[in-house]
Amino acid sequence: MKRMGMIFRAKANKALDRAEDPREALDYSYQKQLELLQKVRRGVADVATSRKRLELQLNQLQGQSAKLEDQGRKALALGREDLAREALSRRAALQQQVSDLEVQHQTLQGEEEKLTLAAQRLQAKVDAFRTKKETIKATYTAAQAQTRIAESFSGISEEMSDVGLAIQRAEDKTAQLQARAGAIDELLASGALDDQSGLAKDDIQAELDRLSGGTDVELELQRMKAELAGGPSAQQQALEGGGTAAPQDRAKEQSHPRFEK
Fold first, then answer.
1. Which residue, 26, 173, 195, 218, shows the most beta carbons closer than 10 Å to its own?
2. Which tens digit of pLDDT belongs to each residue from 68-101?
3. Cα 211 from Cα 220, distance rounded (Å)
4. How far, in whole angstroms, is CA 189 from its chain's centroid?
5. DSSP 8-state class, residue 193
């Protein structure tokens, strides 16, 4: 059970970490500090109010004490010593109250000074925290934006990689089709493939084409031999003589070559 509880707490903490926004946490902490500062300020105001009330009471008692002293003088001047004694007795009681109030006033004044100093220090801390908070929030926001941009570029890179593969496959397929088309053209030219038009050549036409091709080769071969020997070719001789010359005439022409036509 303890292990299950620990696993549950770990998963809960992980979920909270994903859901927590540091900027919201900083704002919440700053709000709490402002509330504490406000409480300290209210405490300073309450102490100052109490001090002010004591000052009013002191002023009132001191005024009564001065009045009783004046009444005692007047009674003594009129020969009423008893009234003068009573006035002085009341004045003495008031002086005791004044002394007690003065002690309380000094205590409250000291407490007010301490609270005022604490409020000033807390204000300075709150201001520093606010500056740091805004700096951290700005840094976090910038880092978050950079992370999103990096993730976007990562996605674009993956998509571009897929596009590159698609282009490569298309180029390979195109090259394969071009090679196949070229091979088919070569086979058609060589006659290895039947004419797809359905007009197949018969055996006689094929033999005539073969003989014609062979005659052309023989004539070209004789012409080249004659050029190498320095004399006219057999074809030229046939054109000039109108036919095939006799062996004697060919021998005579070879022994007496023509220099002019």
1. 26
2. 888 888 888 888 888 888 888 888 888 888 888 8
3. 14
4. 61
5. S
Cβ(68)–Cβ(90) under 8 Å? yes
Q: Chain centroid to CA 103: how far?
A: 67
User: What pTM value is reported for the model?
Assistant: 0.45
Rg of the chain (C-alpha set):
63
Residue 57: Cβ-neighbour burial (10 angstroms; 0-12, 13-18, 19+): middle
Q: Spell out the domain ranges in the chain.
A: 2-154
Out of 46-55, 173-182, 206-215, 229-238, pick the least confident: 229-238
Right CATH for 2-154 from 1.10.260, 1.10.20, 3.40.50, 1.10.287: 1.10.287
In this structure, the dihedral spanned by the alpha carbons of residues 142, 147, 149 and 152, taken in order and rounded to 10 degrees, is -160
Backbone dihedral region for residue 198 (phi beyond 0: left; psi -120 to 50: alpha; all else: beta): left
pLDDT in tens, 120-139: 999 999 999 999 989 988 98
More confident residue, 172 or 256: 172
